[in-house]
Amino acid sequence: MAADLAPPDFAAVRAASARIAPYVHRTPVLSSRSLDALSGARLYFKCENFQKAGAFKARGAHNAVFALPERPAGAGVVTHSSGNHGAALALAARRRGIPAHIVVPRDALAAKVESIRRYGGRVVFCAATQADRAAVAARVQAETGAHLVHPFDNPWVIAGQGTAALELCTDFPGLDDVVAPVGGGGLIGGTALAAQGLNPRIRVTGAEPAAADDAARSLAAGRLVRQAGSFTIADGLRANLAELTFALLRARVDSVLTVPEGQIVQAMRLSWEMLKILVEPSSAVALAAVLANRERFAGRRVGIIVTGGNVDLDHLPWAGAAGGSAARVLPEEPR
Questions:
Q1: Tens of pLDDT along 280-289?
Q2: What is the fold, at CATH topology level, of the domain defined by 10-55+154-328?
Q3: DSSP class per residue in 273-294
Q4: How many whole angstroms from its chain centre is CA 240?
Q5: Catalytic residue annotation
Q6: Which fold has domain 57-148?
């Protein structure tokens, strides 16, 4: 975290909402009686797949870029990203008229890399490890003088991400729960600040792949537990928590639920079949967690942050053996 920035709070989320309003969409909230029946709950899907650049990351990126004072902003911004944050930062920088340098792992989805370039970002490739991403970003920062906008370890980014839950809980003030995916923790931290700022009694739950469960293990251990690598299909959730995001997680999040790869793919397909929206695997993790924990959410009103829709259409995961059919989780017809 930048040393000169204070940790985010509810007031920072409200300030972010006002700052980014001219640049982002107020996304719709969808529901499905079929998914309600499957979960035993009333589900409200905050559809950030319809957001600028196709993901909630537009919120944090725009807040960080437009909060920057003129002098540091003039040299541009730099970040490392598997795709969505990089594309969002490139878009925000283009709108402010400053350069954006995006360090991207070589195994990133081609569609996400193309989005970064389409928005005017300069792509710099690196190895697919967190250490190399950070090292290459530091090198680019030293070469260009650009301001680092970390994908999640940044109070402006966290506050910006929280504006999705701020909208959701303002539009539906009776929610009992909000569920959001957990990667580096920026979204779940901002979600908790926003939701509990409006309703201190609301329960905030994180969801992550079992193959990238550092947040669940960190929460259980009471300290940061880092994960060296992950092979989850949910590429946006492979990052480890930072000290700042872990502190918010410990203070405000009730629990972190984990789900296996097959259930992530099934939830992704269910979103297509029942909500008629295409979401990326990282987005589907939250729905998968709710469906896998029916007893926890039964009878409750549950908001779900659908984080993005940037999908490689040439490699839809349910086309292979791993995903199978969504019918596996559907109830049998009465006989």
A1: 999 999 999 9
A2: Rossmann fold (3.40.50)
A3: III-----HHHHHHHHHHHHTH
A4: 13
A5: 57, 82
A6: Rossmann fold (3.40.50)
